[in-house]
Amino acid sequence: MRDFAAALAALDAAHLRRRRRVVSGPQGAEMTVDGEHVLAFASNDYLGLANHPAIAEAAVAAIGKHGVGASASHLISGHHEEHEALEAELAAFVGAERALYFSTGYMANSGIVPALAGRGDAIFSDALNHACLIDGARLSRADLHVFPHNDMAALDAALRASPAAHKLILSDAVFSMDGDVAPLAELVALCERHDALLLLDDAHGFGVLGPHGEGTPAHLGIRSDRLLYLGTLGKAAGVSGAFVAGRADIVEWLVQRTRTYIFTTATPPLLAAAVRASLRVIREDDWRRDLLRAHAARMRTRVAGLPWTLLPSDCAIQPLVIGGNAETMHVMEQLRARGIWAPGIRPPTVPEGTGRLRISLSAAHTTAHIDALCDALHAVAAAGTARAA
Predict the structure, then answer these.
(1) CA dist., res. 198 & res. 245, Å (int)
(2) Looking at the 3D structure of the chain, how many domains does it have?
(3) How far apart are CA 88 and CA 27, in angstroms?
(4) Active-site residue flag, 103
(5) Residue 227 main-chain phi, psi, to 5 deg
(6) Does 10 reside within a domain?
(7) pLDDT for 87-145, tens place per residue?
């Protein structure tokens, strides 16, 4: 049997052991974490909707009307009228023919990819894609080609060289650890050129980008029947779950073949009702996206001069690359000592030597919160310079 204690000790020695933090009370800009009050830049609640009263009220009303559990899978007796209504609203919101609601984004992607590609087919995956896309590709048993991050020339060459009759391209829309956006127009053009389908995971763009939060394709003005769009509902939407949207025939195929949809109990109707309320807020509250952009611009200006690298990003994710694992965790803990919670991200989530603080901004933050974060970062940097001297 494997020596698990020794394996855990090795993680400790490399500063790679992950630790859960215990949150008390609601998500928000200010939180209680491990019993301490902190200013939080850790969650994906980009629009500050996790505690919106109208969304909470919709969930409570649904409990009174529909109960708590769905009690069966969608294809048995668990597909509720709230699920049906939500799927219609999601499809209309992103301009697709049909949408399908999943329990989580991970379950969606890890099931959708094997439903779309199998033995003898070819999958082309961006090197920085999320783990759920990677795992879905592995489960599919299709021929897998990983292309360098956002390298469209390399992707074009790989597509041209593939003899597969069915080709599937996988890409994040907004990359979760770098905050950059995929070249969607070029991806769609390559799909047209090589008769491929694109599965786009917009976990961090849905609700945030687009004229009214419709996501990255709307933000970039891209529409294509070769695009299968996935958005998550536990980040900017503030609730839980995920959805995929696209052509009606493709979505119907997913109903028939996606194991993570077919063989799991449906999400409680109360959550579908809460997401429906969230969609209304996302559509109407443009000021939340405006404030988020203002926060990102202010932070990027205020952190100038730090000894660490802030990656180029205009979205809610602001990655500050520190370097080594020990140094990354030291900076994180020094911020924590100053009442700031910004999580340190290490390999294998990011490449070796690029440990970083993944700073997540939210419309729930105020200008004073952004300034407090930047002041703390400068203080930690100054203390490190003094110690080195």
Answers:
(1) 12
(2) 2
(3) 29
(4) no
(5) -100, 120
(6) no
(7) 999 999 999 999 999 999 999 999 999 999 999 999 999 999 999 999 999 999 999 99
What is the C-alpha R_g of the chain? 21
Of 83, 145, 194, 204, the active-site residue reads 204
Report the alpha-carbon distance of residue 320 to residue 375 in Å, rounded. Answer: 15
Q: Most distant CA pair in the chain: distance in Å?
A: 68
Q: Which amino acid is at 247?
A: R
Half-sphere exposure of 109 (CA within 13 A, CB side): 28
Q: What is the CATH number of the domain that holds 122?
A: 3.40.640.10
Provide the 3-class DSSP secondary structure of residue 3.
Answer: coil
The single residue of 83, 194, 235, 295 carrying the catalytic annotation is 235
235 given a catalytic annotation: yes
In this structure, the answer to whether residues 251 and 271 fall within a common structural domain is yes
Residue closest to 171 by CA, chosen among 141, 202, 136, 145? 202
Whether the Cβ atoms of residue 237 and residue 279 lie closer than 8 Å to each other: yes
Q: Which of 140, 176, 224, 360 is catalytic?
A: 176
User: Catalytic residue at 365?
Assistant: no
Lowest mean pLDDT among 8-22, 58-72, 74-88: 8-22
Q: In sequence order, which residues have a C-beta less than 8 Å from that of residue 314 and are 6 or more positions away? A: 179, 293, 296, 297
Tell me, what CATH number does 329's domain have? 3.90.1150.10
